[in-house]
Write a structure and sequence with these properties.
single chain; alpha+beta; 10-stranded mixed β-sheet; 6-stranded antiparallel barrel
Length: 645
């Protein structure tokens, strides 16, 4: 009986236990176990693993099918080995031919011991996320199951075949007329920008000087990656990108490059040049002598490096062997702010310092035409990377603001909604992006791609209807009293929007409470939530609020428009007050627009709307558009005293 029970479609507690146990074992002994220590056996298996119908060599490890990482080269993946960090980075490459691998299947009794499984210090990453890996006869191996993030893994018992199929690209056909009954959930709840935190708040609106580009954080903090693969079907342009994208280098014969941190040593010039052209003259001379040299953009300008080398001693030996003048050349590198741009063979193309980032676009004549693939997703504009930690990178997409809005509107409002509602959303998204410029400047970008700014889906999220809405409102923003309006929006007001001071701190002239009957015809206009006291007690303890056993919950203060401003919870150890939007977060409510009752050791909330209630109700905008209102009239209803320009 083969031990290899391949239950991929039916994850069991046993499977999870095995994987967790193995991960805990590797983690717990990594500091003390010598590299090469035997930690198991490779067993023969009668299971055939396939990727897109092409068999891949497989084995049995810990009762589960495993494959060698290096074999993935032939199955639509890039596998990059970094000797310096001792890491293997695996990413799917949709443009790479899936050829498969020719190999002979060993016809041995399933379960026969073949080779030892050895402990390794090599770390393996799938799309920047570390996974469990092993050393098998000098090769790095992983569980076949760990590829399930790339598609569907199926198991056919009768044929003993485990198959990975990549998802087919889906091209959504948009209806020719908007569907007025489209009830797709719009769940915009929060706007993470107090008016006082905007760099454009209380500044005169000058459209000529407003930013034309925006930087979006794609991977950062907890989502920072070990490396990222950038792909283009027509080569790359590399340059600087501030107000304009200035091309410095073009690479025509490469369709894929890799961004990763670099801590190697190099032989470099002691003094940098002011221009890249000067550095290229030296580079050309070195290349004629068949040296492995390339350009570097450092804090002082442009340099030329030869290398890389793992140690300073090796770099110094090479400088001596090349007979390079020590008054001109020296050993450089091993810094914490260097990013390497390399080809798919991991050969350096360029290096740059965090403080002088280089951006990569496709080789189009204009940045407005550039579309590149970053990891598994496509984006307009250009990409750069900054060091997050010693080995992790922050990945940033910089692009024209109008094209950024292309990727926001369909993620914030269904593309099938009425075109006038989509136009109102486009103007709101554009203004909100401008108001958020610099919000994440400490991380190197302006906005992120989540609800902490606006949801941004990049090129593949774009729809013809939403792109039309952006184009037909090109550059339009709202102003009030000569200043940029911060266009707050939410899912559903519940029948009455809220004034800014009852959500944040300051009364803003253009976000006053307005009657909103249009939102009463939409989802979440009314809702109810009942929470037992014992659940509230656990929630409060998690928030480090200890008032003992709850005895009562009371509304202490409400806004003139009906939203709860202060809620007092009384317990056996005292009481605690919750203010403004806190009740939504602590109790998990759709809004703080509610009344409540207490009975049978539980509190029941009867509420209205979804979100903070400030500014434009998205569902209200939909109903207004379907009723015949224009996008200008929608915005003028929700924002008071504004001017559209």
């Amino acid at each position: 009986m083969n031990k290899d029970t391949f239950a991929i479609n039916k994850p069991s507690i046993y499977v999870v236990f095995i994987l967790l146990f193995t991960a805990m074992l590797i983690t717990s002994v990594s500091a003390s176990m010598p590299i090469g220590t035997k930690i198991g056996d490779v067993l023969s298996t009668d299971i055939i693993a396939t990727i897109e119908e092409k068999p891949i060599p497989s084995m049995n490890i810990n009762g589960y099918t495993a494959i060698a990482v290096g074999d993935l080269h032939e199955y639509g993946f890039d596998v990059i080995w970094n000797e310096q960090d001792r890491t293997v980075n695996v990413t799917r490459n949709e443009m790479k031919e899936r050829r498969g691998k020719e190999f002979a299947i060993q016809r041995l009794e399933p379960g026969t011991v073949l080779k030892p499984v050895l402990f390794t210090d090599i770390k393996t990453y799938l799309d920047g996320k570390e996974i469990i890996s092993f050393n098998i006869d000098g090769q790095t191996a992983i569980y076949f199951n760990q590829l399930k993030s790339y598609g569907d893994i199926t198991w056919v018992e009768s044929t003993r075949v485990a198959s990975l199929h990549f998802p087919l690209p889906v091209i959504a056909e948009e209806p020719t007329t908007p569907d007025s009954n489209d009830n797709m959930v719009v769940s915009r709840q929060s706007t993470q920008l107090d008016p006082e935190d905007s760099s454009f708040y209380h500044q005169p609106l000058d459209k000529e000087s407003m930013p034309k580009n925006i930087s979006v954080g794609l991977f950062y903090n907890d989502t920072a990656v070990n490396s990222v693969t950038v792909r283009s079907g027509n080569g790359f342009n590399i340059g600087t990108y501030e107000d304009e994208f200035n091309v410095m280098f073009s690479i025509a014969d490469t369709r894929q490059i890799i961004l990763q941190s670099d801590s190697n040593y190099y032989v470099g010039l002691k003094h940098s040049f002011k221009t890249a052209a000067e550095a290229q003259e030296v580079l050309q001379q070195l290349m004629e002598d068949k040296n492995s040299a390339f350009i570097v953009r450092d804090n002082d300008g442009w340099n030329v490096f030869i290398g890389p080398y793992n140690t300073m001693q090796k770099a110094e030996e090479e400088r001596f062997n090349l007979n390079l003048d020590e008054l001109i050349w020296t050993v450089l590198g091993n810094k914490s702010d260097v990013i390497k741009i390399s080809d798919d063979e991991n050969n350096p193309i360029l290096l740059y310092a965090d403080s002088k980032p280089l951006y990569i676009s496709d080789s189009s004549d204009s940045i407005h035409q550039s579309v590149i693939q970053i990891g598994n997703d496509k984006y307009r504009g250009a990409v750069t990377a900054l060091r997050h930690t010693d080995h992790l990178l922050t990945i940033i997409n910089r692009l024209p603001i109008e094209q950024y809005v292309y990727g926001v509107v369909p993620k914030e409002m269904p593309a099938t909604w009425h075109i006038e509602a989509l136009k109102a959303q486009a103007v709101a998204a554009r203004g909100f992006a401008l108001a958020n410029i610099g919000k994440f400047s400490q991380l190197g970008f302006d906005v992120c791609n989540t609800v902490n700014s606006q949801v941004y889906g990049g090129y593949e999220s774009e729809k013809s209807s939403t792109t039309k809405a952006v184009d037909e409102t090109y550059g339009k923003v709202m102003s009030a009293n000569g200043e940029l309006v911060i266009p707050y929006y939410h899912s559903n007001s519940g029948g009455m929007t809220e004034s800014s001071e009852y959500v944040w701190s300051e009364a803003v002239s253009y976000v006053r409470s307005v009657n909103d009957p249009y939102s009463m015809e939409a989802p979440h206009a009314q809702w109810q939530s009942s929470i037992p006291f014992h659940e509230l007690e656990l929630t409060l303890v998690e928030k480090q609020i200890d008032i003992g056993r709850i005895t009562d919950v009371q509304i202490i203060n409400m806004s003139p428009n009906g939203r709860v401003l202060e809620l007092e919870i009384t317990g056996t150890h005292g009481s605690h007050s919750i203010f403004k939007q806190e009740s939504r977060w602590i109790f998990g409510l759709k809004s703080n627009y509610f009344n409540m009752s207490v009975n049978n050791d539980a509190v029941t909330f009867n509420g209205f709307g979804y979100g903070h209630g400030v500014g434009m109700s998205q569902h209200g905008a939909r109903v207004m558009a379907e009723t015949g209102f224009s996008w200008q009239q929608i915005l003028e209803h929700y924002f008071t005293g504004i001017r559209i320009e």
